[in-house]
Amino acid sequence: MGTWALFLTVTSVFEVTKSGLLKNAHIKYVSGSDDLHEKVSIASSSFLINVTITLLFIVFVVFFSDWISMELHAGTDLSTTLLWFIPGLVFMIFFSHFEAIQQSHLDFKGVLAGYLVRQVIFFTLLTCHFFSEKPFSLATLAVYSSVSLFCGSFVLYLYSRKYLHHNFNPAVQSIKKIFGYGGYIFGSGVMANIFSNLDQVMTAAFISNSAVAFYNTASRINGLVDIPSYAAAEVIFPKISRAVTEEGTSKVKYLYERMVGILLSFTTPAAIFIIIFPKFIITIIAGAKYVDAAPILQLYMLTGLMRPMQNQAANLLNSIGKPSLCFIINTVSLIINLIISYFCLKYMGFYGAAVATLIAGAIGFTIWYFIMKREIGMQLSKIGSYIFASYRDIYTNGLDFYKRINLRSQH
C-alpha cells in the first residue's frame, strides 16, 4: 500500500505539473480568441509539447526509477510499477489534451464522462480480479490503470470530436506563447505538487515505506473534501480570464470572494464532522487497521479549512496574468514546509509530517491573505457573508421544496 501511494505521488506530480504548463495556457488562448487559425495553432503546439515532455519523463523512468525506488525504501517494487505504467503515460497525453480542448470551449460534459469511465473501468477491473482469486501484484495494478486511462481517453475523444479540426499546425510563436504564459504556472505546479505530497515523500525517507500508507489513507479522505475546491477552480478559471478584460477588478474580486464563500459553506461542515469522528470515517473507507491515521486526518482537516482560499487565490493570479507572483509564493511555501517538516519528523517522529503540514498551511494562509488583499482588495467579512448567504439559500430552497411537496400531498 505504501509503494502504491508513492507510485501515485510520482505520477500525479508529473501529470498535474504538466497540466499546469499546458492546460491553463491552452484554455486561456483558445477561449479568448475568435481566430480559428490561432486556435488550431495553440492546440497543435500544446499537443506537441505534451508529447515531448511525456517522452522525456518516460526516459527518466527507464533510467532512474531504480534509484528513486531505493531512495524511498520501496525496494524494486516502485521501479517495476512505474515501468509497467509506461503505456498509461502515453494514454495520459491524449486524456489531458482532450480535457483541455473540452474546457477551453466551456464544455464540461466530456470531462465528467471521461473521468467517470476511467474510474469505473479501474474499479471494475479490480473487482473482477478480486473475485477471480488470482494472485495480485503492483504491476497488475499499473496495467489496470493504463487500461482505464485508454478507455477514459476514448470517451473524451468522442465528446471532443466536434471541436477537433484534424489539422496539426504547431507554430514557434504559439509554443513561445504557451511557455511564456505557462512557464511560471509550470514552476508553480511543481512547487505546489511537491508541497502537497511532501509529507508522504519525507515520511518514506525518514521513517519507512509502510508508514506512507497511513498518510496516504488520510490524504485520500482529505482529497474527497477538496474535490469541490478543485472542480470550482476548473470552472472559474476561464470566467475570470474573461472578466479581467471585460469587467475589471471589481468583478474578479466578487467572483473570488463568492466562490471561496460557497466552497467553505460545503467543506466546513464536512471537515468538522470528520474531525469529531475520524476513526469512524477511516474504518468505513480504509478499514480498522488504519485507525492510527486518525490524528493525521484531523490535522489534515484543519489544514483543509484554509485550502479553498489558497487554491482559488493561486488560480486567480494565473487568470489575471500574474503567474510569476504565484510561482514565488509557492516556492517560498515549499521551502517553509521543507524546513518545518524536517524538524518535525526529526523530533516528533511518525506524526511529525502532519503537524508540519498544519503549521506550513497556516503560514501559507497568512501569506495568501495579504497578497489577495493587496491585489484585489479581498475582505474576509465578504467571504463570511457569502458563507451565511449560502446557508440561507439552502434553507430557503429546502423550505420551499418541502412546502411544494406538502401541498401536492394534500391535493
Task: Write up this protein.
It is a single chain. With 411 residues, the protein is an all-alpha fold. The protein folds into 2 domains: 1-170, no CATH class; 197-411, no CATH class. The chain is built from 15 helices and no strands. It has helices at 2-31, 36-71, 77-84, 86-104, 109-132, 138-160, 172-206, 211-246, 249-276, 278-285, 294-304, 307-319, 323-348, 352-376, 380-410. α7 (172-206) packs antiparallel against α8.
Mean pLDDT: 82
Number of strands: 0
Q: Return residue spans where pLDDT drops below 50 for at least 5 consecutive residues.
A: none
Structural class: mainly alpha
Major sheet: size, sense and barrel closure?
none
Oligomeric state, counting identical vs distinct chains: single chain
Overall spatial form? globular
Name the beta content range: under 5%
What percentage of residues falls in helices of 4 or more residues?
over 70%
Helix segment tally: 15
SSE blueprint and pairings:
Layout: H1 2-31, H2 36-71, H3 77-84, H4 86-104, H5 109-132, H6 138-160, H7 172-206, H8 211-246, H9 249-276, H10 278-285, H11 294-304, H12 307-319, H13 323-348, H14 352-376, H15 380-410
List keywords for this structure.
mainly alpha; 0% strand; 411 residues; globular; 2 domains
Question: What can be said about this structure in brief?
Answer:
The chain is an all-alpha fold.
